[in-house]
């Protein structure tokens, strides 16, 4: 196996959310019982047919097309006009200033922002503190960049009033030389939100050890009743060491436009633009126009979207809690549930296949999010309400069927 | 300077096409004479207001939006339905089979395809044969991936009946261990097309030395009268060692949608998809729908587009040839002219500034394309015809003004 080949072996995507279509589903000899009828529910990502794209998006896109050449060929970091309006709204949302000129870049999705940010701060051999569990790409990016993962545990099931970050692990990683810490808040896959105390502690440790923090706040707008959210960039921390990532793909259902943003440290944003120039040039020019509607939606639209998700969350949680031996924490934000399966007679990978083949339910295996999450599954509950409930019912039936 | 910082120093983009807006233009003490009035012409990229996006593009995009979730969340390599139709048309265009299932990936622009292809074949320390001059990102990508550039000269000004590739240089690079050769055909920035003999020789050498060839054919549809084009992938070469890159951003003026494709070697396409999963996930879902119209435009539309570009090319060439001491080769394809400036009293970087400040003409310095092209400038002549002629007139005036 040559050097490139071994590098790509670690980027295996067969279980990645959205890629299920490439693997054939067949009955396994381990399967028991009959098929459970019901409309397919794909919990690997949100259903943008259930929660439609935010209002005004398409009209804004058409405006971009009408603008012609100047919108097709923007600066690599994105249209200056769009950045100006957006910087003000992002500052307002996060509670700390954003420079439209030097502190903001538009990217092809928040995935694009995350890649550029990590590649702009991590070189081969560098140590990177990574939360476990956390968004699957975080670990893969460190591996692709030939960095070294310093795991930081998130005891989310045990914690109350906080996300459960192991601050000892984090300090240990910094003490051993990690210069970058990457985490999502709310956490993907668990939906937990870091407490003010945790965010302050992260800021303190980053300052003390001179580390850079990349915080993925993709789901930070979809917060449920009673949740307090603290923006790291508004904490007592040098703004040059924080980069925040957001985007309208999730809560706003604009994933089909592939838009993301990163803002904060001008030093990192400058590098990200240089790299974007050879990776993808820019976020699609016409699509950038859609960002003019972002963080500017009608208030009642956002309130309704949150309420509808909260209702689905509550109903699915109630169902899951009736399953013997299942452990699940109530997500405070975002649209993921991350239940721990009870002991089963088949392994999680085969259970995921049974779910798909026997119950028409697509779920993402917990192993995508960290080495200790093998008995968890992730469900994106941004779905048609009744169908999601029926799907979780079928899942409960299968758990019972394969119970140990 | 830490490791990451030094890596990014080599990715400097201040002179990159499209980034001119970020640098302030000010009068230099070296400037002589008055401003030359006329509408600004930005030769750094094509003018999509002069040559409008190909017919049907927007309608296809709207179809993608209407398709909803299934078009927003495609496989990372792109929608299977779109790949199926496109694979057949790409096979027809290039004269060799394309597998929709395993041999084709949709990317955010052809820049996205080039990045993924290079990152999927080049590891740190690997030698890569790179043509000089060639597309500026080729060299930057090798540097970013910490590979080693093995230069292969293109004697385009001297050659007749061929592009002028130095096959001795290429064999030398392979003999010294280069496992990858990357080149654009037609060549960007010169517009020359590789002869059948050159393509055959490249295929022979790649086979003999077991090398992979990445060929960027972005401009291969915009061919002028009398030009014979040979597709490397249809030559006598193992299809597993060739990856071809194309896209509708140039001839078809669809740059605002950011779409590209790579096709050929299943091994490389598989790696590219794994990498795309952590770099940008996928080409924007709705935008992918636009590719259903690509390579399926009305014949007369394409014929007219080629004829209009050929007419601009001829008129600009005639102007440039009247300038004392200027050397230029007639481009056989694409929309670039790459004239060599006569000796001037100011260096090329300052002349580029004078062009912009005094004559409202934006040109790209030849130094972006290779270390030996410092006295060249690149002009993308996909512009409004009369304005382009007037702009080259102003450029001729400045050349005379700053003549040595």
Largest interface: A-B, 66 and 65 residues
> In the CATH classification, which architecture of the largest domain in chain A applies?
3-Layer(aba) Sandwich
Mean pLDDT across all amino acids of chain A: 96
What is the succession of H and E elements of chain A? HEHHHEHEHEHEHEEEHHHEHEEEH
What would your notes on this structure say?
The structure is a homodimer of 404-residue chains. By secondary structure, chain A is of the alpha/beta class. Chain A folds into two domains: 2-52 and 300-401, Aspartate Aminotransferase, domain 1 (Alpha-Beta Complex); 59-293, Type I PLP-dependent aspartate aminotransferase-like (Major domain) (Aspartate Aminotransferase, domain 2, 3-Layer(aba) Sandwich), CATH 3.40.640. Helices cover 37% and strands 12% of the residues of chain A. The first copy, chain A, has a seven-stranded mixed sheet, sandwiched between helices. In chain A, strands 9-12-11 form a three-stranded antiparallel sheet, covered by helices on one side. In chain A, α5 crosses α9, α11 runs parallel beside α13 (385-401) and α12 crosses α13 (385-401). The first copy, chain A, is globular, with a radius of gyration of 21 Å. The model of chain A has no long low-confidence stretch (mean pLDDT 96).
